[in-house]
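Help! Submission page says 'invalid entity' but I think these are all valid:
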Amino acid sequence: LATTTTPKALDILDRVWQTPAGIIGFFTAVNHRAIGARYIATGLLFFILAGLAALVMRIQLAVPEANIINPHLYNQLFTLHGTTMMFLFSVPIMEGVGIYFVPLMIGARDMAFPRLNAFGYWIYLISGLTLWFSLLINQAPDGGWFNYVPLTDIRFSPGLGIDFWATMITFLEVAALVAAVELIITIFLQRAPGMSLNRTPLFVWAQLVMSFMIVFAMPVLMVASVELALDRTINTHFFRTEMGGDPLLWQHLFWFFGHPEVYIILVPALGIVASVLPTFARRPIVGYVPLILSFVAIGFFSFGLWVHHMYASGLPPLGLSFFTVASFTIAIPSGIQIFSAIATMWHGRVVLATPMLFILGFIFVFVLGGISGVMIASVPFDWQVHDTYFIVAHFHYVLVGGMVFPLFGGIYYWFPKITGRMLDETLGKWHFWIFFIGFNATFFIMHLTGFFGMPRRVYTFLPGLGWELPNLVSTIGAFVLGGSTLIFLFNVFKSRQTGALAGDNPWNAGTLEWGTQSPPPNYNFEVIPSVASPYPLWDPPVNDPAYAADRLNVVEDRFGLQKTRRETLGTSWLDAVPVQRLVLPGPTIVPFLASLAVAFTFIGFIFHVLFVPIGALLVYVALVAWHWPREEDWPVEKEKVREGLPSSTIATKFGVRPPFYWGMAMLILIEVVVFSSLILSYFYLRSGNAEWPIGGIKPPDLLIPTINAFILFASSIPMYLADKAIIKGNQRGLAWGLTISIILAIVFLILKYIEYSGYDYNWSTNAYGSITWTITGFHSAHVIALILKTIVIAALAWKGYFTEERKAGISANGLYWHFVVIIWIPLFFTLYIAPYLFGSG
Amino acid sequence: VAQRSQPAINVKSFWFGVAAPAIVWALHLVIVYAIQSTACHWGFLQGTILGIAGLRLLLLVLTIAAGAVVVLGGLTLNGIYKDLSRRATVEREDPSGRVRFMARAGSWIAGLFLFALVMSLVPILLLDVCSPYWW
């Protein structure tokens, strides 16, 4: 890209965006490239660990009746293998690639919430290490990656293994959600000028769809794993049939997350394919619009497939057939991806560099996995191969073919951008072919192993069943596969030091990340670029006025971006028209400390529930430290850069919402999914019990709860008035409004406590008690958090921090307050009205 | 970069076309599955209306109604797309590019949702609504 910035200005930019070196920098970095690179490196570390676990399992299964490891260790290894590959490798590494490359592809200097980004990474790292630490103390989970109840109930899986799983998965999902929100807001609000939705790179589209899928899928798993953890720790009965619970509730919740999870992994990989393929086919991708259609359609349909994992659970055929339809239908958008790839190659001039080889490998392997997927979408076929090695073969073809092949292609493609050096092509080709051969040797024959009747998850088998040869072949193949990874690692370490220098754009690619140096400078782009097509670097620079150097200079001045602090450009979400300057925070250790506090809470919960309130207090302190304004934040920014755009702190004055307002909106969306999952749990449990409430419990009295509900609703009024007051610059009105809202919320909690003290049942009485106490407790926890949060905001308000110009925080807090109030309406209906409408009385 | 003005379209119709098919398909799946499971489990809607099992009739009506909304959404977007295509000038400077793109992609996605809904009609028509057996 053309640049016009002076060397002095570049020095300032470089200094402002620099991450401190050494150990301090390690713990304080917030820059998206530092965080993204860590996600990728950590993801690869977990990939290797899970791969080693698989090799140990394959040694055990190489011959019949082997005794290399005992069944308990085998169970722990396959659980850790699956859990790691799904939760600690696939999703985080794809998010990591997004965190690294999305800002570069959209022409931004960093992501919307850099500190949150760092916080998410630390949570990911701590949860992953904790999960693997459990293996060292022989307490690793052993119920498989989907941990079906009742097997994982405390009665059948004593010890801490499942607790480690349930708690760490919930903890880990926080990281996944944080990264997803980060990506969504960044993509919607920070695209380079001109990068309207129809000019957005396909990889960015894929990351956007993936992130929304995470937002809708992961909270459901969090609810499921919390319910499982509660069953095990405080004796609730969500999944215990004899107490009114239902094991199938676990399966519904888990697979509502679990099937989209496959596509959460696949869609960003398809985005990588759509990035690599045009570069090596030397032409724009064929079918840009159909491919976006395909991403979006896959995103939706993936949520309509979950019951196809439950074909053998005894559900009625008609119900199953609805999910068969969706399972067949998703083959259409998946097919679009493949046909687009073929058409692009057909019309292009393909260069068979290593990244392209991996894309070809993806097409071959993924198509095979897709075909077997269509086979098992059919109920009768699924019944024949359910829980056999055919399924193991199928999902490895889908997941390794659909995700690992494109990921390796992406690594070979983007390594030069990250490091400034090329990976060795010869070693890369050896890596590809050995990986390809090893993979197919391992897994193709597993289709036959499954047809021969070998079930999944058995630690050994008897001779004479015809399983000896296929298992031996799979084991040999697994070691070939493992060997290929050694070549890859050697290539990475060698090329990192001595690889050929890459230059800015070694592949002559068309997207923006190649328009800056390799590796990119601290500030990514000297000048925020503007674009006019999905492949801006392939546009003729001379003839396109958007790329004329003088135009860029004018554009930069018009944006009014300051170079003396971290600023990037905020644009409108549909057409990427510049609307605001976003002021971003610099390096800080607070996210790391906050993640430690959260980790203390979650890890403590594994051992005793009392650690939760203690940890919550630590989290609160950390979050206050995080959000409390620094000294330099107190003066209100009166100055507007001449002809420039408003900074985010005063953005709402100009009718533009800053990113953190939308971040709050995303949090609310996540919360809606969480509460919906709880409400669905309630009605699912109700539908499975002839008597409701169970065990002679009377339906709740309505008088006090109704009065209390009105008190909660009333708390929204002063909050609303507070928001209105500060718009007019009325600081006392703001402070009083916040204070009255807090008082009303406290009254709500006191009455709630009185109401529940009067009940003669609790969470451990039966499933009715479990779900009602959990919903109430969860909502009350929200009210408590809201009060604690608003106390801090009120304290700042009384000190005069908020002004007419600086009021966006009030709007965001108000938004969340109103949400917690409004969500009480469906919860009230569920807890208090439903027992009368749908009860057995 | 100049502030690009978008072409005059009926914004409500446009967003209805973009959002409705997906939302309706998702709601349809959850609702018909929940109704069918609950009704069969507790023995609701087991009578016949006009010789058709009550539950089957309800599922048919819901599916056809959902399909109608999806068709409406898809046709709305298709109309917007055709209208804008007529008005379009040179693509690179065409301010309607993003809207046309969304209209085109949205109408195609609506087609996919319609396909899924039509396919859902087949088991509703052919299978016994509450039998635990396939035959």
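Support: the input was valid. A stray whitespace character was the problem, and the output above is from the cleaned input. The longest helix of chain B spans residues 54-87.
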